[in-house]
Amino acid sequence: MSYPFERPRRLRATERLRAMVRETTLSPANLIYPLFVAPGKGLRREIPSLPGCFHLSADEAAREAEEVERLGIGGVILFGLPSAKDPVGSEGYADDGVVQSAIRAIRAVCKDLLVVTDVCLCEYTSHGHCGVVEDGEVQNDPTLALLSRMAVSHAKAGAHVVAPSDMMDGRVGAIRAGLDEAGFPSLPILSYAAKYASAFYGPFREAADSAPQFGDRRGYQMDPANVREALHEVALDVGEGADVVMVKPALPYLDVIRAVAETSDRPVAAYNVSGEYAMVKAAAARGWVDEDRLMREILTSIRRAGADVILTYHAKDFARRA
């Protein structure tokens, strides 16, 4: 009787052996947890399409951040729901805005937790688009000054990292110039460098009340069919001063994450977005999948593709079971 010369199963026999030779590792420190902050005090309102996630007032966001820090998660990213909206999203760069207030509250109680802020106008504009609108069109260049102003306001409030997600051309350079001029030359920029016009954003748009009131965002977010364009966008953002580059969404774009990781010398982030999370939660609620195993497999696949950092709503669930 002949036997196979190679027996890969030898190293799969026990969990200790499997762990010892595991090629891809994942820890809570690799994760960033999104928080949705809103006006008020004592507010903790669950978001129906994102089970386990909440609209939080600044004081409740600080309490949530304390738990996130205790769990060993690397950081939080803040999204804001303003008390009022207008055509230019002025509450987004107000010194007393919801995100600015939440930054201060979190920094007051968390010693080591990284506070990242989303820099985009869509949550604050009455029309729901990510830039200034004139004659029904999103205007690129007039938007840049407002994004820079928002990033500076976040920096002054105490943000550790700013993360522009708008997909306006030249916004990383404008934000870098604004931060440097305001005295924050060392503040990093995590750029949503390759952000696709995706159907996976639905639950987020409900959570952030940021759906566009007319048209869609395909005029500035990327076509899902393109990979080379993503590499071009990454190169442009790096040239303008991006310190970390991100691909969003994650699961349908693992090939893009891999391509960016192989061609860029910057750390790579990936956003495991709301629709990806909601599908897992919905299937688990019906008993169709093992939620814990599926969550781990998804996050590991994103790391395996090349992401150094993962933004994910699964962060607390993963950290509790890590």
Task: Describe what you observe in this structure.
By secondary structure, the chain is an alpha/beta fold. It has one domain: Aldolase class I (TIM Barrel), CATH 3.20.20. 38% of the residues lie in helices and 17% in strands. It is built from eleven helices and twelve strands. It has helices at 15-20, 58-70, 98-109, 140-157, 171-181, 202-207, 228-240, 254-263, 274-285, 291-305, 315-321; strands at 31-37, 44-46, 54-56, 75-80, 114-119, 132-134, 137-139, 161-164, 190-195, 244-248, 268-272, 309-312. Strands 1, 2, 3, 4, 5, 8, 9, 10, 11 and 12 form a ten-stranded mixed sheet that branches. The longest helix is centred in the middle third of the chain and has 18 residues, at 140-157. The protein starts with 14 loop residues before the first helix and ends with a helix. The model has no long low-confidence stretch (mean pLDDT 95).
Here the CATH topology equals TIM Barrel
Q: Give the overall average pLDDT.
A: 95
Beta-strand portion reads 15-25%
Q: Low-confidence runs (pLDDT<50, min 5 residues)?
A: none
State the CATH architecture: Alpha-Beta Barrel
- What is the number of domains? 1
Number of extended strands: 12
Indicate the percent of residues in helices.
Answer: 25-40%
- Note the overall shape: globular
